[in-house]
Design goal:
Pdz3 Domain; six-stranded antiparallel beta sheet
Length: 713
């Protein structure tokens, strides 16, 4: 057996983490690098030749992968074939742009992609992208030409929107027929939204012109990133290249802070629109910006406003972000304006914004179980985070998952108290490795948590060496198919120790560890021009010796799963590392739920039969699977209207059933203005009832054991 070793610390510049990362819109702060406004406003194609930086970066990315990747991957002719196929798939996975003749032309590079990467000869990848760029413009120009004549929707025809398994179009006429149906489908969607042809033509015209403009704004850095990520994806699904913008966004998200106005933005045709205002951020405190407002122009301090309509989202973000204390001026078209096109100009002082929506949050659910009130604490954890830089600089108040959750537990205990606790890890894609281990330590006294194996076969055991716990009462961990990496380490350890129930769906199955290497430091570049490489360096195993790779964590009590593991999760990746087993480690279980599981499962099954929301959930999963099996949609107006009518009636029936339960007045119809009844999180509610059942069963058993001891005396 193996013994516990100390945790490995990671440097600030080589950050170890184990989860998928949802990146914000790419950005550089306005203070570090000015946006090239002239190039953004230019509608002609930009120069897409590789730069000397890209030639250098390509060679070293290959070297780092060869020297440090866990799987010791090769790069030869066989891999070259896969890289070419992956690059084409990345650019045109739905076969909507390229023609068969293009794909045939690209085969001249079939056995040269490996050499291109190894030597930094990037001409093949840029040539392929230039053809894609040309085809993209051609397709959207054709789409625009179709708007000259109004469509009719009486024909019995269907649009096959999923061409993943289709053959490449042999002729321009063949691909244009696909686009005719695609544009007709876009138009029909607007007709169903009660738009007249004039409005349809205007909306689609703006949309298609924006698409042409968007590809014209692609930069050399973008093409290099696409190609490098086609390469890394053939190595394994979680090794990837971070462009300079993406690398900075990774650091921003892991720190849960940025300097700016505190608004999450999204692209909406030619406009940049406010998706969400961050609570307590500058935008929120100003009271001048709301969800769905459009940003028309941006200015720095007293400088002239720059019109940003038609810009790339990340370029708009570049202008808006900046140093704390500086002023940004925005021209806004309010979403609630009664006059279309009416704008206002506002000034906001930038601040350091804490991205609280990514941090752990708590609530308390009160449920009734056999006439008894139970208070179940819930901690929602969207990701495992830590401010690495502050931590290793020795700052006492650095931000981390474990610190936040310890505080939330104490707050719930110090209030009215809780009877049980749920850690909600649904859709938590992972994050910092150290935090997964440290968080487990809040619920076990001391002991190993996870085994970490490197490419040479050396195994290190990471564990909790701090005596004591923050919570030793009934515990459940709620997971789903998107719970990955750090979530699986935590859930697996809690399950192996018998410390808590795992409830939900089989998890993602990502059992690998990545390190982010800053390429700028290798090249001693003062600015962030080389980006970074996220590299799979280790594989982790449960303390039982089993890997979570591919298989994930299987819940003790399962909920209906909307996904097949073949279509979703690690098993769906062709380049995923394999599942295996290593030697187990010594550890002492603290409990077992075996004697309770049968009763808990029966109570759960009996309860959800009578739970309308849970039955709705099951019905929706069934309907979702039916839709997934379809690859086309009718373009007949009557058929689409009939389907919409049925869907609307289904929504109306559900809404009235919910109102009936709450004793509220029922309604005759439902539309966008209808104030809908708030729908409870049926999975979370059911998890609370399950842990409540467990609490009663454990208490009853303790009472029985005490009575038995007394009678024997």
């Amino acid at each position: 057996m193996l013994s516990i070793k100390s945790l490995t610390k990671v440097s600030v510049t080589a950050l170890v983490f184990i989860g998928s990362v949802q990146l914000f819109a790419a950005s550089k702060t306005a203070s570090t690098q000015a946006v090239d406004i002239a190039s953004i406003q230019e509608s002609t194609m930009l120069d897409l030749s590789p730069t000397p930086v890209h030639h250098q970066a390509s060679r070293y990315i290959e070297k780092f992968i060869r020297d440090y990747h866990y799987a010791k991957p090769k790069l030869g002719n066989q891999e070259s074939v896969h890289i070419l196929d992956e690059y084409i798939e990345l650019l045109d996975g739905n076969k909507a742009y390229f023609l068969a003749e293009d794909i045939k032309d690209f085969q001249q590079y079939r056995y040269n992609m490996d050499n291109a990467i190894r030597t930094g000869w990037l001409k093949p990848s840029y040539y392929i992208y230039s053809v894609f760029q040309k085809r993209w413009a051609e397709r959207y120009q054709f789409a625009l030409s179709l708007l000259e004549k109004e469509f009719t929707y009486t024909e019995k025809e269907a649009f096959m929107y999923d061409r993943d398994e289709a053959s490449w179009a042999q002729t321009t006429e063949e691909i244009e027929e696909f686009w005719r149906k695609r544009v007709k489908s876009d138009a029909l969607n607007l007709v169903l939204a009660e738009k007249n042809w004039k409005d349809v033509k205007e909306v689609l015209g703006k949309r298609y012109n924006a698409a042409i403009r968007r590809v014209a704004q692609i930069k050399s850095e973008d093409v290099f990133s696409y190609f490098m990520n086609a390469y890394t994806k053939t190595v394994d699904p979680h090794t990837s290249y971070f462009s300079p913008r993406t690398a900075e966004n990774f650091n921003i998200e892991m720190k849960l802070s940025l300097e700016g106005i505190g608004a999450v933005l999204q692209a909406d045709d030619v406009y940049t629109k406010v998706l969400r205002v961050v609570e307590a951020g500058p935008a929120d405190k100003s009271g001048k910006i709301s969800m769905d407002d459009k940003i028309i122009a941006v200015g720095q301090g007293k400088k002239a406003l720059v019109d940003v309509v038609g810009w790339r989202l990340d370029d708009v973000v570049d202008l808006i972000r900046g140093d704390a204390g500086s002023v940004v001026r925005l021209e806004i078209e309010p979403a609630n304006s009664s006059v279309s096109g009416k704008t206002k100009i506002i000034s906001i002082v930038r601040e350091q914004v804490k991205l609280e929506e990514q941090a752990a949050k708590s609530e308390i659910l009160e449920i009734e179980n056999k006439g008894k009130k139970q208070r179940v604490g819930v901690i929602d954890l969207p990701k495992f985070y830590v401010d690495f830089k502050a931590k290793y600089e020795g700052k006492k108040d650095y931000r981390s998952t474990t610190r936040d959750i310890r505080r939330l537990i104490e707050e719930m205990k110090d209030g009215k108290g809780i009877d049980a606790l749920i850690i909600d890890l649904r859709s938590n894609g992972g994050g910092a490795l150290d935090e997964a281990t440290a968080l487990t330590g809040l619920f076990i006294d001391e002991g190993p948590v996870v085994q970490d194996r490197n490419r040479r076969g050396r195994v290190q055991i990471l564990g909790d060496s701090d005596p004591g716990t923050s919570w030793d009462g009934p515990l459940a961990v709620l997971v789903n198919g998107s719970s990955a990496s750090a979530s699986e380490i935590f859930a697996g350890a809690i399950q192996d120790y018998g410390r808590g129930l795992i409830i939900g769906e089989q998890t993602f199955g990502k059992g690998t560890v990545q390190r982010v290497l800053d390429l700028n430091q290798h090249f001693r570049a003062e600015d962030n021009k080389f980006g970074a490489l996220k590299l799979t360096i280790n594989k982790f195993y449960r303390i039982t010796g089993e890997s979570t790779q591919m298989k994930g964590v299987v819940p003790d009590i399962s909920f209906p799963d909307p996904y097949s593991r073949d279509d979703f999760g690690e098993q769906s990746y062709s380049s995923a590392l394999k599942w295996d087993v290593i030697e187990a480690v010594d550890f002492e279980r603290v409990g077992s739920f075996t004697k309770y599981l049968t009763v808990l499962q029966k109570k759960h099954a009996d309860r959800i039969v009578h739970n309308k929301e849970f039955q709705y959930l099951i019905d929706d999963i069934t309907e979702l699977n039916k839709r997934r099996s379809k690859k086309s949609i009718t373009l007949n107006l009557d058929e689409r209207q009939l389907k919409r009518k049925k869907d609307k009636q289904k929504r109306l029936n559900r809404e009235n059933e919910r109102r009936l339960v709450k004793g509220e007045k029922q309604i005759l119809q439902i539309d966008e203005k209808t104030e809908l009844t708030e729908v409870e999180d049926s999975k979370l509610a059911e998890a609370a009832h399950i842990i409540g059942d467990l609490l009663l069963l454990q208490n009853a058993r303790k009472i029985a054991e005490v009575n038995n001891d007394s009678s024997q005396k």
